[in-house]
C-alpha cells in the first residue's frame, strides 16, 4: 500500500507583518549566539507501541538560518523553509508505514529564545494545522559527549507541542568567544560612558570659567565706580541747577578732575591708617 500524506490538513502561516521575522538569525540573537545551536540540525524519532500498530513520531529540527547546509536531509513531506517539521507514521503488521500527521513550523513564524535552568528554550508561535493553531517549544539540554542532537521526548498539549532535545546544541560556545563578545559590548559601553563623562566635565569646566571669570573684588570695583559716577552727576546737577548743559559739563569735569587728583593722597592716607602709621611724627635723633 502506498503512503498517504495528509498534506491537505496543513495550512502554513505565511502572512507577513511587522510582528513576524524573516528567519531565525542565531548569530545575531543575544541568547542564541551564545550556544552551538547554529552548528547542528537533527532528525529524531520516538517509537511507541499502539497495538496492534507501532507509531513513530519523527521531528526535523534546524532552527538557525546560518545552518543552511545541514548534514541531515530534510524529510520529503517537509517544506524547504521549515525550521521544524513533525511527522507521525503508523505501521500495521504486514502493511507499509502510513503517514497520518504532518505539521510544519516555518522560518517566518515569530520566535522567542530564552535560558532557563541551564537549558536553552526556543518557542515558535502560531502555526496553522487544519483548523487548529499550535506553538512548538524546543528544550535543548547540553550533552557534550554526543556528536549530534538526540530527540528524547515529545508531548502534545492543548495548542502546544513540547520537544526535549539532548546534545551539543544546548551547550555554550567556547567561553573565550562569549568573553570576546561580552568584552566588545562592555568596551562599547565604557567608551560611551567615557565620552559622556568627558562631555560633562568639559561642560562643567566651561560653566565654572563663565561663573568664576569675574571675582568679588572686580564686582566691588565696578560698583564703586558706578556709585562714584552717579554721585558726581548728582552733585554737579545740584550745583548747576537752572543753568545750561555746558555749565553742568564744566562742573562735572571739574569735580571729576579733583577726585582723580586727590585719589592718590586719599589712598595713601587710608593705607597709613590701616598700617598704623602717623605721618605727623617724622622727627628723629642722632647718636652723640
Q: Mind explaining what this structure looks like?
A:
GO terms for molecular function: phosphatidylinositol-3-phosphate binding. It is a single-pass type I membrane protein; Single-pass membrane protein. Residues 24-173 form the MRH domain. This protein is of the alpha+beta class and 288 residues long. The protein starts with 41 loop residues before the first strand and ends in a 13-residue tail after the last helix. The strands form two sheets. It has a five-stranded mixed sheet, with no helix packed on it. A four-stranded antiparallel sheet has the order 1-2-3-4, with no helix packed on it. The chain has helices at residues 175-212, 216-239, 245-275, and strands at 42-50, 53-61, 82-91, 98-106, 110-116, 119-129, 132-142, 150-157, 160-167.
Summarize the structure.
The chain is α+β, with helices and mostly antiparallel strands and 288 residues long. The chain has 3 helices and 9 strands, in the order βββββββββααα.
Number of strands: 9
Radius of gyration: 46 Å
Specify the CATH class of the largest domain.
Answer: Mainly Beta
CATH H level of the largest domain: which superfamily? Answer: Mannose-6-phosphate receptor binding domain
- Give the terminus-to-terminus CA distance: 152 Å
Shape: rod-shaped
CATH architecture annotation name of the largest domain? Distorted Sandwich
H/E element sequence: EEEEEEEEEHHH
User: Which runs of at least 5 residues are low in confidence (pLDDT < 50)?
Assistant: 1-22, 281-288
Strand order of the largest sheet: 5-6-7-9-8
Largest sheet: 5 strands, mixed
Helix content: 25-40%
In what range is the share of β-strand residues?
25-35%
CATH third-tier fold name of the largest domain: Cation-dependent Mannose-6-phosphate Receptor, Chain A
What class, by secondary structure content?
alpha+beta
Number of helices: 3
Mean pLDDT: 78
Signal peptide: 1-23
Main location: membrane
Region (Disordered): 174-208
Subcellular location: Cytoplasmic vesicle membrane; Golgi apparatus membrane; Mitochondrion membrane
Amino acid at each position: 500500500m502506498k503512503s498517504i500524506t495528509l498534506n491537505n490538513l496543513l495550512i502554513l502561516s505565511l502572512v507577513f507583518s511587522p510582528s513576524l521575522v524573516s528567519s531565525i538569525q542565531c548569530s545575531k540573537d543575544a541568547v542564541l549566539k551564545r550556544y552551538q545551536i547554529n552548528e547542528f540540525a537533527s532528525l529524531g524519532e520516538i517509537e511507541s507501541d499502539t497495538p496492534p500498530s507501532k507509531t513513530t513520531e519523527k521531528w526535523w529540527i534546524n532552527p538557525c538560518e546560518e545552518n543552511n547546509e545541514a548534514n541531515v536531509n530534510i524529510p520529503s513531506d517537509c517544506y524547504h523553509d521549515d525550521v521544524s517539521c513533525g511527522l507521525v507514521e503508523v505501521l500495521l503488521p504486514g502493511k507499509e508505514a502510513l503517514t497520518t500527521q504532518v505539521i510544519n513550523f516555518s522560518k517566518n513564524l515569530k520566535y522567542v529564545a530564552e535560558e532557563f535552568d541551564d537549558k536553552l528554550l526556543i518557542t515558535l508561535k502560531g502555526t496553522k494545522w487544519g483548523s487548529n493553531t499550535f506553538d512548538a517549544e524546543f528544550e535543548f539540554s547540553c550533552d557534550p559527549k554526543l556528536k549530534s542532537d538526540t530527540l528524547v521526548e515529545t508531548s502534545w498539549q492543548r495548542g502546544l507541542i513540547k520537544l526535549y532535545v539532548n546534545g551539543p546544541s544546548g551547550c555554550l560556545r567556547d567561553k573565550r568567544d562569549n568573553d570576546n563578545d561580552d568584552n566588545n559590548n562592555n568596551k562599547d559601553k565604557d567608551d560611551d560612558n567615557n565620552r559622556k563623562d568627558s562631555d560633562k566635565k568639559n561642560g562643567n569646566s566651561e560653566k565654572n570659567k563663565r561663573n568664576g571669570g569675574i571675582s568679588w573684588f572686580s564686582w566691588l570695583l565696578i560698583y564703586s565706580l558706578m556709585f562714584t559716577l552717579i554721585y558726581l552727576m548728582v552733585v554737579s546737577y545740584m550745583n548747576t541747577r537752572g543753568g545750561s548743559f555746558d555749565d553742568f559739563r564744566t562742573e562735572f569735569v571739574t569735580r571729576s578732575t579733583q577726585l582723580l587728583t586727590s585719589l592718590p593722597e586719599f589712598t595713601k592716607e587710608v593705607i597709613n591708617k590701616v598700617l598704623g602709621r602717623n605721618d605727623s611724627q617724622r622727627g628723629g635723633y642722632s647718636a652723640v
